[in-house]
Amino acid sequence: MRIAVTLSFLFLLTMFLGCQQAEQYAADTTETEIFPGPPNVVLIVLDTLRADRIGASRDGVPLMPGLEAFANNAAYFRRAYANATWTKPSMVSLFTSLYPGVHNVQYGTVHSLGDDEAVRADAIPDTFETMAELFQQAGYRTLAFQENANMSPVFNMDKGFERYEFHPYPEWTADRMTEEVSNVLAELEGPFFLYAHYMDPHAPYEPPDEYLELFEEVPGLTVQDRDLLDRYYDFYNDFLMHRFGIKDSRDEPDFSEQGKEKIRLLYDAEVRYADDHITSLIAGIQERHPNTYIVFVSDHGEELWEHGSIGHGPTVYDEVAHVDLIIQGPSVSAKAVDHPVMLIDVLPTLAAMAELPVREEWQGIDLFADDLLERPVFIETHSSIQATGIFKQAVVLGDRKLIIDYQHDTAELYDLAADPREQNPLDRPDEVAALRALIDEQNELNRSHPLHSEGDARQLELDDETIEALRAVGYVM
Asked: Omega before 170 cis (within 30°)?
C-alpha cells in the first residue's frame, strides 16, 4: 500500500507542476510570422555534446556563445534526455519515435571482444518508418550529411533520404560539414528536410590549434600523460576492456589529475570549434530560408570521470543521458522549458509543426501540445558491444532518478535537484519500488508494442571499410 501511495503522490505532484509549466509555455508560444507553403525542417545533431556546455565557460571564455544565443531565441528544452547513451540506438529512437526496447537496434558489435569471429552489427529493419520517409512521403526533398560511422548507409540509416552523404570522421570535421551543407542550401528549394550530423567533439579530441589556444594550458602534465595523449585510443581501449571484464588487468597506466583535465580541455576546445561552425550554418539557413524550423540536439553526452570513467555507452548517468534540445522557427517563441522530455518526442513535434500525419505507433509526444504534461522519462543502454553483458535502465520523474543495473542487480536513486552530479544515492526503498514499477510497466508496454522487434533487428557482417571507420572513433577494438 505504501508503494502505491508513493507512486500516486509522485505522479500527482509532477503532473501538477508539469501543467503549470505547460500552461505558461503555451501562453508564451504565439505565431510570429506566416510564410506561404510548407515549412522546411533542418535537424542538426552535434554528437557527444554534454548538456552542461551551453552557457558554460573555461578560463572566462564562453564554450558555446553561438548556440547559447540561438537557445535564448528559441524553445530551449533544458532537461532533454536521450533514450539511449550511444549513437545508434539513440538516433534510431529519434528517427522512429520508438524506445530502444521496441526497435532493439542496440549493438555496434555483437562479436566477442578479442576473438577472431566476423564483426557483426545491428541495422534498422526495413519495417520501421523513419523521419526521412515521413517527410519524403509528404513531398519533401530529403538530404543528409553524416560523419558518424554508426550512421553509415550500411546500417540502413539512409532510409527515406534521396541524398545521403556519408564521410566518416575525421575525413570530415565541422568546418567541412558546414561548408558542404551551406553550399547545398544556397541552391536548394523547399520544402526540404535536411539532417546534418557533426562529430566534433567526439574522441579522439583533436581540436584545431587556434581553438586550443583560446584557453589556458593545463600545467604539470607528466611524461606519462603526454605519452598517453599521443596514444589515446590505446589507453581508451585498454581502459574499456578492463572495465568490461574482458581483461583481468590493465596494460596502460592512468592519467594524472592534470592529464584528465587536459582531456577536458581538449573536449572543450572541440566544443567551441563545433559551436562556431554550427552557428555559421544556422545563420545561413535563417538568411536564405526563413520559413524553416531548425532543431538542434545531441545524441548523447560524454563521461569525463564524473563516475570514474570516460566515453559513453556503458552508463546512464546524466553526463551521458542529459542532452540539449533547441527548436526555433515559425510560430515558436523564445522560452526555456525545465521539465524532462525525450528524443522520441522530436518526430511527433516536427510532424505537428509541418502538419504531417501522426502515427499511432509513435511513443513520443508533440512538445508544443497544449496538454503537455510531465511524465516519466526512460533511458537505457546495453553498451555498444553485446559481449559485455551490460544492461542498465533509468527512469526520471520530476527530480527523482532511478538507475537499475541488471548485470549486477543494483539500484541507485538520486535527487537531481539536490545532487545533479549523482554522487549520493538515497536510501528510500519505497521510492525505489515505485519508480522500478514504472520501468517494469514500460518494459511490458514495449514488449507488447506492435512494432516490437525481439532479436530480429537486422544484423550485418561488416566489411573492412566499415570496421576501420568504426575503429577510428573507438567502436571496434
From this structure: yes
DSSP string over 385-410? BGGG---EEEEEETTEEEEEETTTTE
Please choose, from the candidates 267, 229, 243, 367, the residue with its C-alpha nearest in 3D space to the C-alpha of residue 58.
267
The dihedral sign for the CA sequence 258, 259, 263, 266: positive
Separation CA 27–CA 455 (nearest Å): 45
The 3 state secondary structure assigned to 139-165 is: CCEEEEEECCHHHCHHHCCCCCCCEEE
Phi, psi dihedral angles at 202 (to 5 degrees): -65, 150
What CA–CA distance (Å, rounded) separates 326 from 71?
6
pLDDT per residue rounded down to tens, the chain (477 residues): 333 334 443 433 333 333 333 333 333 333 446 677 899 999 999 999 999 999 999 999 999 999 999 999 999 999 999 999 999 999 999 999 999 999 999 988 765 555 556 788 899 988 899 999 999 999 999 999 999 999 999 999 999 999 999 999 988 999 999 999 999 999 999 899 999 999 999 998 999 999 999 999 999 999 999 999 999 989 988 888 888 777 889 999 999 999 999 999 999 999 999 999 999 999 999 999 999 999 999 999 999 999 998 999 999 999 999 999 999 999 899 999 998 999 999 999 999 999 999 999 999 999 998 666 679 999 999 998 888 889 999 999 999 999 999 999 999 999 999 999 999 999 999 999 999 999 999 999 999 999 998 766 788 888 888 888 888 887 776
SS3 237: helix
C-alpha span between 320 and 427 (Å, rounded):
24
Rounded distance between C-alpha atoms, residue 323 and residue 318, angstroms: 8
Q: How many Cα neighbours within 13 Å face the side chain of 148?
A: 29
Domains and CATH numbers, the chain: 39-376 (3.40.720.10)
Torsion on CA atoms 461, 462, 464, 470, rounded to nearest 10: -150
Q: Note whether 303 and 312 are within 8 A (CB).
A: yes
This prediction's pTM: 0.90
DSSP assignment of 294-357 equals EEEE-S---EESTTS-EESSS--SHHHHEEEEEEESTTPPPEEE-S-EEGGGHHHHHHHHTTPP
**CA–CA gap between residue 340 and residue 291 (Å, rounded):** 28
Compute the 3-state secondary structure of the chain and give helix, strand, coil in percent, each to the nearest 5: 35, 20, 45
Residue 408's nearest CA partner among 213, 244, 268, 261 is 244
Name the helix (H) or strand (E) containing 54. none
